[in-house]
Request: fold
Amino acid sequence: MSYIGVDEIIGTFQNVWIKVVKTYKDDWKEHIIKSEDGGLYSYPPSFFSEADLETEFLCLLREEFRKNSFKDRHITVKNQFKFGYRTFRDLPELAQRIKKLKLRLEKETEQISFVPDIELDVASKDDNDPFLIFAELKYWLNVDPKTKNVQEMSKKEQGEIERLRKQCQMLKLAVEEKVCENAFLCIISDGYASGNAIRQVLDSIKNEFKKLHFLIDGMPLEEKREIMNSKQKLSSD
Reply:
């Protein structure tokens, strides 16, 4: 057995995210090669929605932390995490911070609750300890990689950007009120990898919310085109 520190937990979290992105890319390649009607902007069956992304990440995180036993620290991984102060009334200091967060959420974001997609923590908490990690996930394949500026985006896409900003604000408040120690935005975006308008938007948001950690990756449009061209060439030979 060995003691695991917060830096190790964060490193493991980031490494598992890298595995998830690789799985997405591999699934997309396999989908294009095997599919008769799969196109450049198609979704692989295993990553059809954000819920699929959340499930993949959740399962890999649990597998990673279950396969090792760590002295004094058993790491739990939860999704759609509800953390109302009444739920943690046995930890009064933490419950009080959660209550303060709730009041700030209502005042500054007009939200009465906040449910992180992913939460990591130790199984046995001390009263004064924040949750280790809150994470929000985004799966943004629907933004056309050819889009060069925000004005070209659809109203739905621009609405998603505003929703992301609000979620960033909620994570920022959770960090400020010491409800969570580390807050992550984990985003798969082919548009970002292609350097289109969404990269400008997300880089601006990253700069605006410096207290948060951003993990953003995807498949560049040129890489997808190369795979498509290789498939077509093999088909014609």
